[in-house]
Amino acid sequence: MRKPFLSRFKSSVRSLVKTCVATLILMAVVSTSLSRADAQPTLTLAQFQKKPKLIVVIVFDQFRADYLTRFSSRYLPAQNKNGSIGGFLYLMQSSAYFPAAKYDVLQNMTCPGHSMILTGTYPYRTGIPINDWYDRETKKMRYCVQDDQDQLSPRTIVGDTVGDSLKNAGYSSRVYALALKDRAAIALGGHRSNLSFWVDANGDWSTSSFYSSDRELPKWLKDVNAKLQKTRGREIEWKAPTAGTGLTEGAGFSKKATEGSLASLLFPFGAEITTDAALAVLRGENLGNGKATDLLALSYSTHDLMGHKAGPNSLEMEELTVAEDRALSRLLNGVKTHVQGGLKDVVFVLTADHGVGPSPEYVKQARIEAGRLVPKQLIDDANKRLSRKFGQPKGAAAWIVAEDSLNFYFDPDALKADGIDRAALELEAKRYFETVEGVNRVFTRTEYEQNRLPPGEFERQIKKSYYPSRSGDVVIIPKPFWLDSTTVASHLTGYSYDRSAPLLIAGPNIQAGVYATPADIVDLAPTLSFMTGTVAPSQSEGRILSEIFRAK
Predict the structure, then answer these.
(1) 169: containing domain
(2) How far is CA 239 from the centre of its chain?
(3) C-alpha distance from residue 346 to each of 56, 275, 340 (Å)
(4) Both 341 and 410 in a single domain?
(5) Cα separation of 326 and 309, whole Å?
(6) Contact present, 104 and 461 (Cβ < 8 Å)
């Protein structure tokens, strides 16, 4: 019996050796092929040295990645017979299109998102972890672009942007940024923006003394305001007579608002006046026709304003997206006719600052666990528990005195009392929060400092997001589809629906197509800097999206 066994064993060994050798040969061939492919230049030197005349960065606030695909049947064609170009479909067809780009952070919202787009780094470095935080020195809530000197400015944002880098390199580049929201315009423009401007409470385009000591606006922007003021107070109507694609809920609507009111900014009117202002900048400053690369950045805030009110599954959001497609087409055609030579020297970027999740009520209908957390109740109950264990705080009304975006802050004076252990307070608050329905994980400031964080993706996202002097002492991570907001829908988490965003880059030397390769939004800044031949922003940690460049 031994001989057959030995024969079989030897035969198996020979077969195994042959398989291993074949595998090694195949791996060597593949490795050589990849090495040769990597060794090929993606651009010729002449192509690399030719810089774009204009970069237009277009952000749609709260524009989840699948908005581009869900409603594509209703978008304008990529190009009409008369040569006019469309909106979303044109960029989808002519861009390096990453449908699955993301923000790899714990909490996705407007200020953190916009601050990442052109800095190329995450909140743990920009210093913008959330929209508002508790200032432990002043003991007051602080807005992300609040400035004691100029009211509003980018001073709270640590580091520079693509536009700043262009100017720091000595180029005569012009940088302009605008949005209905001040924080969006300020974050995109950076510290050296020629002008960042937004819509004020009166419905006029405005700026701060950071950009102009007397807040004086250029003539072209005054003209835009004068046009708005002529029709202010007029009633406008927004109609949706059909059921759309059938992918959203609703069967038509008719809404009315007074032009210039906050309600009107939720209508396509908000996108239209944003487009008007962008075209006014383009023409008023003659962007794209100078000696150096100019940068125009704009954010369509309307999408977020209506998104919170109606949610991503509403007919309103479908109709608004279709209307924004028309506004985008008008912007693209305006750039095409303005820049000498057309679009051959123009780079377009389209992305979003974050996504959005469905409303908890919508999800519950599908028998998926969802709900709403009530921060005020969480604070009250946590304070009661802390007082039972540690007694009433000395020199403070309560232990936890502030909360924003599920970041909870202790009163600094209470922590200074003799014998108070901050780590023990945090741990007791954490133990309570972990018992609350809808809470997935809880971590504390001490656990962050000691690198004892929830595992896996949570840990990675926390490290990219947490900023000790501005983030909370205790932070709740809710379960999927749980909100801390009373709005219909919102965005707060690092789950896929909140972190997903489209990323499209069109321009000279870029190979159009749909890219399945991973892309993070922080990859945009170093990629744009590469295209302009400048060093990436100081804190940039994204990669250059080298796969999109092709020598022709």
Answers:
(1) 53-363+494-548
(2) 29
(3) 8, 18, 10
(4) no
(5) 22
(6) yes
Interatomic CA distance for residues 422 and 413, integer angstroms: 12
Report the sign of the C-alpha dihedral through residues 146, 148, 149, 155, in that order: negative
- Residues near 176 by Cβ (< 8 Å), separated by ≥ 6? 189, 193, 194, 195, 196, 281, 285, 287, 295, 296, 297
Residue 30 belongs to a domain: no
Spatial contact of 327 and 274, defined as CB atoms under 8 Å apart: yes
Q: What token pair was written down for 395?
A: 């020199």
- The reply to whether 233 and 180 lie within a common domain is yes
DSSP labels, 376-388: HHHHHHHHHHHHH
3-state secondary structure 84-99: CECCHHHHHHHCEEEC
**15 found inside a domain:** no
pTM of this prediction exceeds 0.90: yes
Rg (CA), the chain: 26
Q: Looking at the structure, tell me whether residues 333 and 187 fall in a common domain.
A: yes
Identify whether residues 498 and 426 lie together within a single domain. no
Residue 11 included in any domain: no
Query: Residue 349's CB: how many other CB atoms inside 10 A?
Result: 22
Q: Which residues of the chain have pLDDT under 50?
A: 1-3, 5-6, 9, 13, 17, 21, 23-39
Q: Which of 348, 341, 337, 424 lies closest to 386 in space, CA to CA?
A: 424
Whole-angstrom Cα distance, residue 422 to residue 307? 39
Q: How many domains does the chain have?
A: 2
Quote the crossing angle between the two packed helices 219-231 and 268-284, to the nearest 10°: 150
pLDDT in tens, 222-264: 999 999 999 999 999 999 978 789 999 988 999 999 999 999 9
Report residue 518: phi and psi, to 5°.
Answer: -65, 140
| Structure-token pair, residue 387 | 């007082």
